């Protein structure tokens, strides 16, 4: 009689998480640096959108598509930043509710 091992999805997910953590650690990526870098990108998209709006209002930009694309990029990045913030706060609150 041959008994095959159980394929537990929790164990596989944990191994994937361990692999990701090891890859991040090997590359020397710091969460704070990653967060600051991406928040700077959000700010850059917002500033670019405002600049494009101003140039369009002054009549210096002929292509409305560029203005719309810049606006949509800014909107998407700020929405993503808000969602990431909400998830981080949710995770923090969940950790604080843990009883040791």
Give a written overview of the molecule:
It is a single chain. By secondary structure, the protein is mainly alpha-helical. The chain is built from 3 helices and no strands. The radius of gyration is 22 Å and the shape is elongated. It starts with 8 loop residues before the first helix and ends with a helix.
Write the layout of secondary structure elements.
Elements: H1 9-27, H2 31-58, H3 64-97
Helix pairs in contact: 2-3
Short description:
The chain is built from three helices and no strands. It is an all-alpha fold. The model has no long low-confidence stretch (mean pLDDT 84).
The radius of gyration is 22 Å
Reading the helices and strands in chain order gives HHH
Compute the separation of the termini in Å. Answer: 43 Å
Mean pLDDT: 84
Structural class: mainly alpha
Kindly estimate the percentage of residues that lie in beta strands according to DSSP.
under 5%
How many β-strands, per DSSP?
Answer: 0
Question: Which features would summarize this protein structure in a list?
Answer:
mainly alpha, 100 residues, elongated
């Amino acid at each position: 009689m041959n008994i095959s091992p159980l394929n537990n999805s929790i164990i596989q997910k944990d191994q994937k998480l361990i692999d990701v953590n090891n890859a991040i650690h090997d590359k020397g990526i710091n969460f704070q640096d990653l967060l600051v870098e991406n928040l700077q990108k959000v700010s850059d998209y917002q500033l670019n959108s405002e600049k494009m709006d101003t140039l369009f209002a002054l009549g210096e930009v002929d292509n409305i598509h560029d203005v719309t694309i810049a606006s949509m990029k800014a909107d998407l990045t700020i929405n993503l930043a808000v969602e990431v913030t909400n998830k981080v706060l949710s995770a923090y609150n969940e950790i604080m509710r843990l009883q040791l």
